[in-house]
Design brief:
Blueprint: H1 2-19, H2 21-24, H3 27-31, E1 44-56, E2 63-79, E3 83-98, E4 112-125, E5 131-142, E6 152-164, E7 168-177, E8 189-199, E9 202-208, E10 211-218, E11 221-228, E12 232-242, E13 245-258, E14 269-284, E15 288-305, E16 315-318, E17 321-331
Antiparallel strand pairs: 1-2, 1-17, 2-3, 3-4, 4-5, 5-6, 6-7, 7-8, 8-9, 9-10, 10-11, 11-12, 12-13, 13-14, 14-15, 15-16, 15-17
């Protein structure tokens, strides 16, 4: 039973990553954070390619299309039954084809956008069974990454897991991100959540600032949803056709941010928001996995400003359209 519970909690950790990508930054590093078993991390890497064809830009005589490349790597540095040290790195590169301009400042939209960073993480299991963790990330998201200190971000996550019986636990977090503002300031965000796993078919993380739920009405069907305030949502239904092959469909709403190197106000960022209807298949062998999915992206827009309230100013709206993704994952 303990291994089944650990597997379910591992899924919750992955779900938490999906709803909080801007702070955590690396999937491999955060997947295991909620797992009560230490010393079982493995090296892994993945590459993902995404293609959006040209779509019309509203109120401008131009289109916008892009190709995106993402690479991530995780390496356990040291681990035993009480301690885990890990290192992860990831890079996202977007090659953008457009002549769009920001309506107010008049600047040309960048032809390239990058987000590159690295994370050092540590977990320790105390004699009481409590688990403490810390992850520190540094990176740069910009059209000219690491152009200056103003294009560099720093992020940190501290977590304490307090078990409640064999399956459940309280999770206390403190999250800081220099590029995420609360009340117009990059302040630490405390959080508390309860991990509830009443059975092998149902699990939930209920709390602030994140929540998730997973339900398996049948052995081959998994329904899941995650939410992170205020505008990150993920819902998915996954069908296991046979052991290595799964098909899924879902909905996502999320965003990315970047600093333009030649911006006038150093607090301004380029925000990109979109919603997606997605369907795909995943084939996993012991050491390698392949995934292909696609769908329809809508409600797509960029703007440059300090916060979400600035989204009606200096805005570039992009037409709805299809996208396709291919991904390869390797586990060593």
């Amino acid at each position: 039973m303990a291994s089944a519970v650990a597997a379910r909690v591992l899924v919750l950790g992955a779900a938490l990553l999906v709803v909080f990508p801007t702070v955590v930054g690396a999937q491999a590093e955060f997947q295991m954070w909620l797992n009560p078993e230490l010393g079982k991390q493995i090296p892994r890497a993945d590459y993902r390619f995404t293609y959006y064809p040209d779509r019309k830009v509203d109120n401008q005589e131009t289109h916008l299309g892009l190709s995106e490349h993402r690479v991530s790597l995780f390496v356990p540095l040291f681990q035993d039954t009480a301690n885990e040290w890990g290192f992860s790195a990831r890079t996202r590169f977007e090659d953008i084809d457009t002549r769009a301009r920001f309506p107010e400042v008049g600047g040309r939209f960048p032809s390239e956008l990058w987000d590159a960073g690295a994370t050092l993480s540590f977990r320790h299991k105390f004699d009481s069974g409590w688990i403490g963790g810390l992850a520190l990330t540094a990176g740069s998201a910009s059209d000219e990454p690491f152009h200056s200190i103003d294009e560099v971000y720093y992020r940190g996550v501290a977590m304490l897991r307090v078990p409640q019986g064999e399956r459940n636990a309280w999770i206390f977090t403190l999250i800081y991100a220099s590029d995420e503002a609360i009340f117009n300031q990059p302040l630490p965000m405390p959080g508390i959540a309860y991990v509830w796993v009443p059975s092998d078919r149902f699990s939930a993380v209920i709390g602030v600032p994140f929540s998730s739920i997973e339900f398996k009405p049948f052995e081959t069907l998994t329904l899941e949803a995650q939410y992170f305030p205020i505008r990150t949502v993920r819902a998915r239904a996954t069908w296991q056709i046979f052991q290595p092959l799964r098909a899924y469909a879902g909905f996502d709403w999320d965003h990315d941010t970047y600093y333009r190197a030649d911006r006038d106000d150093k607090d301004d960022k380029i925000f990109y928001y979109e919603k997606r209807l997605t369907a795909g298949v995943r084939f996993d062998l012991r050491h390698v996995g392949f995934e292909v999915y696609g769908g329809w992206a809508f409600d797509r827009f960029y703007y440059e400003g300090e916060r979400y309230g600035d989204r009606h100013d200096n805005r570039i709206d992009v037409g709805d359209g299809p996208f396709i993704v291919g991904k390869v994952s390797v586990r060593f």
